[in-house]
Amino acid sequence: MTADRQLGDIGTKLLLENDRVRVWEVRLAPGEEGAVHQHGLDHLLIQVAGDRIAVVPEPDSEGPFRQFLAADVVPGAVVEVARGGIEAARNIGTQPYVEVIVELKD
Fold it and tell me: Which domain holds residue 52?
């Protein structure tokens, strides 16, 4: 990771944090890309709304997504993801995208 890179928040809004979890809401308008961020914890992605989403990984990402990945949104889908990713999310669909991320603290 380059020293001058600025990482943003994992989500749009922090909903809850306690000693076991951190819960984020992610909202992206069509065509919008979130901040480049790093996943320091294993987490669950819960898709709520939208039609197409993409993961845009950084070259030094050590997470499971190391190449650009585009996928259909399946509202209600829950995906378990290992820590290590340095990436941004991009709404490549025509509908607003909404997701909940639950970070699992050790």
Answer: 13-104
d(C-alpha 54, C-alpha 72), whole Å: 9
Measured CA to CA, the distance from residue 88 to residue 29 in angstroms comes to 14
Is residue 1's pLDDT more than 60?
no
Q: Is 21 helix (H, G, I), strand (E, B) or coil?
A: strand
What is d(CA 34, CA 12) in angstroms, rounded to the nearest whole number?
Answer: 8
Half-sphere exposure of 10 (CA within 13 A, CB side): 23
pTM equals 0.89
CATH number (domain holding residue 54): 2.60.120.10
Residue 103, phi-psi category: left (phi > 0), alpha (psi -120 to 50), beta (remainder): beta
Q: Is 76 left (phi over 0), alpha (psi -120 to 50) or beta?
A: left
